[in-house]
Amino acid sequence: MKKKWIGICLAAAGCMVLLTACRDDAGRGPKDSGEVKTVSWNTPMEKDGRILLRLANNQKPDHPASEACDYFAQLVRERTDNRIQIQVYHSSVLGNEAETVKEVEYGSIDMARVSIALLTSYNQELLALQMPYLYKDEAHMWRVLNSGLGDKYLESMEEKGIEGLCWYGAGARNFYTSSREIRSPADLKDMRIRVQESSFMMDVIGTMGAIPVDMPYEDVREALKNGGIDGAENNFPSYASAGHYHEAPYMIMDEHVRIPEMVIMNRHVLEQLSQKDQDTIRQAAYESSLRQRELWTEYEREQWKVLEKAGVRILYPEDKTGFREMVRPVYDMYGQPYEDILSEIRQMGGPGA
Ligand code: GCU
What we know:
By secondary structure, this protein is of the alpha/beta class. The chain has helices at residues 64-79, 97-106, 138-145, 148-155, 199-207, 220-225, 236-241, 244-247, 267-271, 275-309, 321-326, 328-335, 339-347; strands at 17-23, 30-38, 45-47, 50-57, 84-89, 111-115, 162-168, 173-177, 192-195, 211-214, 231-234, 250-257, 261-266, 313-315. α1 runs antiparallel to α10 (275-309). Alpha-D-glucopyranuronic acid binds at residues 58-59, 65, 97, 114-115, 170, 196, 217, 234-235, 238, 261.
């Protein structure tokens, strides 16, 4: 068995010295061996002729993104006769989203399913896909992601050692609050709203009049509960799956932004597999992305009933013009370098996009 060494630390002379923590045989997280070894990094872990890859995901197992990751792992296992096994770790077991992105870059985790809000330090241009009120609807966003432009972005972090294997959708993000309802854009004023750890998202929410508070996803429910924040913003499945609705029962479907997600993989690990295995992984990831869209719709339908029963109040603004107007400065701040891309994206929305 080749051991996979977990930990990150650069030694002098360009060697990689890793504080080792080898996994136990059941693959259940690190078991600190206390040794310090020099190893070539980014080696896929092999055990008894099998290749074991780890995929980190911060959603709970019932979330559609998690089920899609499971499906991806299942396809790869079936198509390689159990030779390549992707172990999927849900519920942030391997760290919060920002941490897992870094770990994929370093190769201490092989793959992760993440929001692209956390990937802009690898390619700033990914901001163009996250601009507020950019897409007409979900179908428009998928047209973009499935186009040559989408493919280009999947490949765009390769120099930094990361490959985007496929896209997952993440619906639209909406505000939800614990005590004071948001009925119009003016109601956002001075509300402490949690945002992802992204300076761009801080600017979007700040521009809308709220006070942005960035924190990892796992901490949001507790912060809503103890009053550290007045509300948050996320898509409907995450609001449901993370249980945020228990603490923040007022939601307004303003759909201010759509932030797609990727399954990313450490490129060096990927490249050490045979071409056939690489193709199997890429194809399975793509098929899981198709499945993720179906799972998303099914989950929204199911959770709708659950939340209705729980007494959640969901407001649909008749007119989103006020919200749209508020985010204009975001285009002045961020849009200019991406004008061509933004216009290409708009064209994919069809007439009036
Ligand atoms: C979405 C997304 C997560 C992300 C979360 C967040 O739910 O699926 O990957 O971490 O938003 O708001 O942080």
